[in-house]
Write a structure and sequence with these properties.
There is one protein chain. With about 350 residues, the protein is of the alpha/beta class. The chain has twelve helices and 15 strands. The radius of gyration is 23 Å and the shape is globular. The N and C termini lie far apart (about 60 Å).
Length: about 350
């Protein structure tokens, strides 16, 4: 190679290395390998791992999909609590994983998989009032338990059920979950890359609607109902849907701290939302989990059918994944933004 070509090549290489700094960025530090034993503070408990877990039972779809996204699908020996089909990009790995239950697995079914880690999406599955098992039950069989920070940081689950959020949810809790999995499984670089990808997606979604944000438009998010004609589980003021609404400048009509409070349709009528978000899911715990039954109720119920949102057909169908604290939360921002814009409500 001619001398001038070698000089040019060296200069080009130096410029590429310097680009992040020249652009005002910082060259990311290389993630540190985990040194075992490692202890993680989780939901007020100290959880110690002597080595990276090899056999994991994931009780909750978000936890399962985070593990898949980190390339840890071969470590998952059982899953449960599914609201919708697995994301398409995870179909192949998920097909090889045993599903213990669509909803709540038994303690016996979980420990039968001989896990060295049980991770849960909700503290009401694994926690002080855990209906699958309490932490001390798993401790007795020497199985560490990890619950997503999204369900216990800034949240009071002492009363059981969906709990009460004392602080507003943010995606930082999801990123903490991912980062701690990176530490526990010694895949910190993968965790950092996944967090960077999600941050970029979220920023892009918000930027796309920044100029069209519908300021103060009243919105409610209907998850389900124990009885289709009964009170509705609507999104509280501090949960994942509220985070989505706040990102778009919309106003949640529900101002209670409960995660999914039961609200009568007369109360909804008094607030008269401009938009109703209806959650679509495959789960069938309650009759109103069925999206078609929800939509039919809105059109035929004496009270609900009179709402401005229903009369003007301002209804957004949102996949359940977008309402959970996980990888798909940003999808909810995109779905609601498109709906608001299509209704001519954006300003």
């Amino acid at each position: 190679m001619p001398r001038h070509a070698r000089v040019f090549q060296r200069c080009l290489h130096a410029l590429i290395i310097a680009l992040p700094v020249l652009a005002g960025g910082v060259v990311p530090a290389r993630a540190q390998a985990t040194r075992y034993p490692v202890t993680v503070e989780n939901c007020g408990q100290q959880v110690t791992f002597e080595k990276a877990p090899q056999r994991v039972v994931a009780i909750g779809q978000t936890q399962t999909e985070i593990l898949y996204a980190l390339g840890l699908g071969d470590r998952v020996v059982g899953t449960a609590v599914w609201f919708s089909p697995v994301a398409k990009r995870f179909e192949a790995v998920n097909a090889k994983v045993k599903r213990l239950a669509d909803n709540d697995p038994s303690f016996e079914a979980v420990v039968a998989q001989e896990p060295d880690l049980v991770t849960a999406m909700f503290e009401w599955h694994v926690g002080p009032n855990g209906i699958v098992g309490k932490r001390d039950q798993f401790a007795k069989v020497k199985v560490p338990a990890y619950v997503s920070p999204t369900d216990c940081v800034g949240k009071d689950n002492s009363g059981g059920g969906d709990g009460i959020r004392t602080q507003t949810f943010t995606m930082e809790l999801v990123y903490r979950n991912i980062r701690e999995f990176g530490q526990i499984f010694d895949v910190a670089e993968r965790a950092d890359a996944l967090i960077a990808e999600l941050r970029a997606r979220e920023a892009k979604a918000v930027a796309a609607v920044a100029g069209n944000a519908a300021r103060d438009i009243p919105v409610t998010v209907w998850f389900s109902s124990k009885d289709v004609k009964g009170d509705a589980f609507l999104a509280g003021k501090n949960g994942v849907p509220a985070y989505i609404l706040a990102k778009l400048g919309a106003r949640n009509i529900i101002m209670t701290n409960e995660e999914w409070p039961l609200v009568g349709w007369e109360s909804v009528a008094a607030a008269n939302p401009a938009v109703i978000v209806v959650v679509k899911m495959d789960r069938r715990r309650f009759p109103a989990d069925d999206i078609d039954l929800k939509l039919n109720f809105l059109k035929t119920d004496a009270v609900a059918s009179k709402l401005d949102a229903v009369r003007n057909n301002r209804i957004v169908v949102m996949d359940v994944g977008a309402t959970r604290a996980g990888l798909d939360t940003v999808d909810g921002i995109e779905a609601l933004a498109k709906g608001i814009e299509s209704f001519g409500l954006s300003k």
